[in-house]
Amino acid sequence: MGKNKDTYRQIRALLVDDKAFARNVGQRILKSAGLTAIQEASSGQEALDLLRNPDHSIDIVFCDLMMPDMDGVQFVRHVSTLPVIPAFVLVSGVDIALLNTVENTAKARNLRILGTIKKPMTVAAVRRVLGRFDDAGPAAGGGFKPATRVTAEDLKVALAKDQFLLHFQPKVSLVDGALDGFESLARWRHPERGMIPPDAFIAAAENNELIGALTERTVKLALRQCAAWAAAGLSMKVSINLSAYMLVDVDLPDRLARDVAESGLDSRQVILEITESGLFQDAANTLEILARLHMKGFPLSIDDFGTGYSSMEQLSRVPFAEMKVDGAFVRGVAENSRARAILESSVELARRLGLTVVAEGAETQVDWDTLKKVGVDLVQGYFIAKPMAVDDIQLWISEWEERQRPELM
To answer: Which residues contact 103 (CB under 8 A, 6 or more apart)?
Structure first.
């Protein structure tokens, strides 16, 4: 699953660290990972000045946390106010719990966080975070465009002109590596701006009351593809993300059941993933909708488990069939005792409730081995495959079957 070093030559990086020795080492590591366009800053203020300069477009910032004049947490706050926001990698020798806290702080400020790297930096760690970047690619003009850059009119035009498509990320069994299904993920191929990241247009769709139309479009695309697989002899489950904003429409269960029937599929093949942090805006209607979806045979999945504030309450009120553990508790879990404790507790809870456990975000053989030891059922992540276009799936299946060797099992 490795990449050629040329893959990352187009990415423009900024390395921020107050120590000259650390910057010299960092330069060598980044270049060994395949980056060639690398700038440096010796302080948060110097980095801010560079980012504010329109002549210096930056795609990714590698930022040390412990800097004297402006620490990395303050730097993140200032960057979040810029008109064009780069992606971030947080680098530090501090304990992993603090790194995770800062990562969550940055995400709360709507920054695109590719991950954290505990010092000393390694080529493998850098390539791992770079792999998360190139799924969406550099935004036009450099850096990550925040969600406010996408307008309601942009979305209406995109829907009218069928600019949305789906990529699919496989879910495989940790027992034998068998393919279990695919998660369908919306992508927006803009004719002028290229691929717009989902974390930009999903939020914009929700904020502009267009998430219903977008979800309906992605559901139809997913069902159409699942039906095409079935016609080709590949009986496959497909997971569809269902925005919590849709869980106030009491006609939704009937529409989904009708769409599935018209596609010639069984509702048990269509897993509906619902982010736990967005549930229960309207408790009565939401519970009615979820109960009726369950009655119609749709497996319900609680997505991003562990990132919300009412996980236990959600599990007690909704007939979930699947728990998807958020990638924050999966990536590097072998080295993160807190993440492992949360993961183990989540698996134990799921077992008691009779839920299938899916781990998101597995990136290494070590992640795979740890998840298997903990007792996770299914896994998805870059170690298995990135989200891919339909045309790439058959080749991936062939390559994945070839990879099924004793050391993976």
So the answer is: 90, 113, 115, 116, 328
Average pLDDT of the residues in 373-377? 96
Helix, strand, coil abundance in the chain, percent, nearest 5:
45, 20, 35
Same domain, 51 and 152: no
For the stretch 65-114, pLDDT in tens is 888 889 888 999 999 898 888 999 989 887 777 777 888 788 888 788 88
DSSP state string for 327-345? GGGTTTGGG-HHHHHHHHH
Our count of domains for the chain comes to 2
**133, 166, 200 — which closes off a domain?**
133
Q: Tell which residue, 84, 86, 113, 73, has the closest CA to residue 13.
A: 86
pLDDT band at 30 (very low <50, low <70, confident <90, very high): very high
Q: What is the pTM of this model?
A: 0.78
Amino acid making up residue 160: A
Residue given tokens 């919300």 in the structure block: 308
Nearest CA-CA partner of 242 in 280, 215, 266: 215
CATH number, domain with residue 53? 3.40.50.2300
